[in-house]
Design the sequence.
């Protein structure tokens, strides 16, 4: 069905928003972006995950097609998700399709025919597809007929090697502009550090495009970073106390770790699955589908999982290993709470993470020195965030160039960490590194240095005569975990470097001099005993971020009961249509229906998320389900 059968001829963007998507107002900058693109302008859209990027190209696509401009080509790297994205549009009554390699020649030909007859509003395709001779030919034919309305390049940061999802195929997208300079283009991404943004503009030749930069804040996400002590137990406790039965993602660095953690969670009775690039594509697809379709599933994954996962009710994102940089961290944590309801971003991190990440950069054989330097700088910024004592959100947003006030919704705001004057400890550590180097002519690793500081005459210490050093035993006042904390923070502050090319030995950096000479003092974050669940500032109960709790608090018994029935009904419809439940109706829409207990189609039509097509298709059913005897 074409949308023109649903809405008035020449609909305005606001008509489309209401009639097709069932929403009454644009969010933030959506209105300006849509107006600019409808008018044929190029745009670069930087908006956080969950900000509402899809409507920014879907509405112009519909408006422009109705005005006779033809099809919008959406370039998206996510072949696995195109089916659901297109499914959601079809549910809303928009004629959309995708082109991918699983289609037969006949299927592709049928699609091409539809396109040339101006029957499609949106066509999704992967970037590698755009470059095939057949696709180029098709685009040229459409262009000749004046039926090429707009190119929307989703996840545009994939074009940049500074981004965290570099896809070389994206590079060739500059051809679009060269071949069809008069067709408007928009590029959209949730990643926006300065370097990536500049690279994106250059690579995609978007110098003349208008930039729309939204606030990157995700106020409903609570950020927590705790010291890694016993990660497996810490994770289990976190899920059991704060997210029992809820959907979430757990990121680990290695495939092996992913498998172990998924098995551990399952053993503890939590619905969990593993996902990484080592699994075959079919299994990955199956697991992704289950994650999207089943309630309360935990996905344990490497970073191979997640780009574009638009499941709205992911209630937590946990990092068991540190990501490479803040962009990666922000993108991954951004997958929580797309529905705007509370979500947790929780990370454990320790000295080993710092060492590992440094080593990966230093020992990379493919990267140039320039590239390594940039990556080290990005890692340092993440370390500073992790070790920092100020509001996490202020630090995060600051990294993206946005000023903000302490948020009251992160661990550092809720539980301000104590700071201690670690100048003495830092000097001891630094001078120990110095003395050892002087005495032996080589550097040593963290374990050995801590043994010397704490006065432990291990075999190695004695063998090198390090028990004779003036620094032997000067650090007995602090325990090993405190020394680790000191060292980690010295590394984060760039006073000490871990040399991955020489067995992870520790080296002094130039700035260490001033500390050694007593010219600057070092204030460090007091490590909180991290095994306890986080507590709010007012003391009392552990902070709980449960959506179930919120729903219960706001719905009365009758409404709750209706919500249950509506959800069962939705599950059946979703299954029949082979789509995730949220594509049929969002939780928020069902909750509003349950609360208002509508009696007529007219009552229903005012509910957010209820477009004209969905009202036609499901309205009567929804009323029947609502009215069922209790
Ligand atoms: P992004 O692609 O930026 O991560 P989406 O386009 O998936 O975000 O939108 C996030 C959610 O917000 C979706 O569920 C979408 O339906 C909803 N949404 C977007 N714009 C509006 C709006 N103007 N009013 C209400 N809901 C909206
Ligand atoms: Zn804060």
Sequence:
């Amino acid at each position: 069905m074409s949308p023109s059968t649903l809405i008035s001829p020449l609909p305005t963007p606001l008509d489309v928003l209401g009639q097709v998507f069932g929403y009454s107002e644009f969010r933030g900058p959506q209105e300006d972006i849509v107006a600019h693109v409808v008018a044929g302008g190029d745009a670069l859209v930087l908006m956080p995950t969950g900000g509402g990027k899809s409507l920014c190209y879907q509405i112009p696509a519909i408006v422009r097609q109705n005005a006779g401009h033809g099809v919008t080509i959406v370039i998206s790297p996510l072949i696995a998700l195109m089916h659901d994205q297109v499914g959601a549009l079809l549910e809303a009554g928009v004629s959309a399709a995708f082109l991918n390699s699983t289609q037969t020649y006949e299927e592709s030909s049928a699609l091409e025919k539809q396109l040339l007859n101006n029957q499609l509003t949106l066509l999704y395709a992967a970037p590698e597809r755009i470059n095939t001779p057949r696709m180029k030919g098709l685009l040229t034919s459409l262009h000749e007929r004046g039926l090429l309305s707009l190119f929307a390049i989703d996840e545009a940061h994939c074009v940049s090697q500074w981004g965290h999802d570099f896809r070389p195929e994206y590079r060739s997208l500059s051809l679009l502009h060269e071949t069809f300079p008069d067709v408007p283009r928009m590029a959209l991404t949730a990643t926006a550090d300065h370097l990536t943004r500049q690279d994106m503009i250059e690579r995609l030749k978007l110098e003349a495009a208008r930039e729309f930069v939204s606030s990157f804040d995700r106020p409903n996400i609570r950020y927590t970073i705790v010291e890694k002590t016993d990660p497996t137990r810490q994770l289990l406790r976190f899920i059991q106390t704060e997210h029992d039965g809820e959907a979430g993602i757990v990121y680990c660095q290695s495939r092996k770790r992913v498998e172990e953690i998924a098995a551990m969670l399952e053993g503890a009775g939590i619905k969990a699955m593993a996902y990484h690039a080592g699994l075959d594509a079919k299994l990955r697809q199956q697991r992704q589908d289950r994650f999207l379709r089943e309630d309360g599933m935990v996905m344990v994954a490497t970073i191979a999982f997640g780009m574009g996962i638009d499941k709205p009710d992911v209630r937590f994102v946990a990092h068991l290993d540190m990501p490479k940089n803040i962009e990666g961290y922000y993108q991954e944590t951004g997958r929580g709470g797309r529905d705007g309801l509370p979500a947790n971003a929780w990370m454990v991190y320790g000295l080993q993470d710092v060492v590992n990440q440094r080593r990966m950069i230093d020992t990379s054989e493919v990267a140039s020195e320039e590239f390594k330097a940039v990556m080290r700088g990005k890692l340092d910024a993440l370390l500073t965030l992790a070790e920092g004592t100020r509001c996490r959100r202020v630090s995060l947003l600051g990294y993206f160039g946005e000023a903000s006030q302490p948020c009251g919704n992160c661990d550092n705001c809720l539980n301000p960490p104590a700071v201690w004057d670690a100048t003495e400890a830092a000097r001891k550590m630094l001078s120990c590194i110095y003395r050892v180097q002087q005495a032996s002519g080589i550097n040593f690793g963290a374990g050995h240095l801590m043994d010397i500081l704490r006065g432990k005459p291990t075999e190695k210490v004695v063998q090198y005569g390090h028990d004779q050093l003036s620094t032997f035993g000067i650090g007995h006042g602090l325990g090993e975990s405190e020394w680790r904390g000191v060292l980690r923070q010295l590394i984060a502050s760039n006073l000490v470097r871990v040399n991955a090319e020489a067995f992870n030995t520790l080296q002094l950096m130039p700035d260490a001099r001033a500390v050694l000479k007593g010219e600057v003092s070092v204030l460090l974050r007091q490590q909180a005993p991290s095994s306890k669940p986080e507590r709010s500032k007012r003391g009392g109960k552990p902070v709980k971020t449960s959506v179930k709790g919120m729903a219960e608090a706001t719905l009365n018994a009758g409404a709750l009961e209706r919500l249950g029935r509506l959800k069962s009904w939705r599950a059946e419809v979703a299954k029949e249509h082979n789509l995730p439940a949220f594509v049929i109706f969002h939780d928020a829409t069902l909750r509003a229906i349950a609360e208002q207990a509508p009696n007529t189609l007219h009552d229903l039509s005012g509910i957010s998320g209820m477009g004209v097509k969905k009202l036609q298709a499901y309205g009567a059913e929804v009323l029947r389900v609502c009215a069922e005897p209790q």
The chain has a mean pLDDT of 87. The pocket of zinc ion (ligand 2) is lined by residues 391-393, 406-407, 409-410, 412-413 (CB under 6 Å).
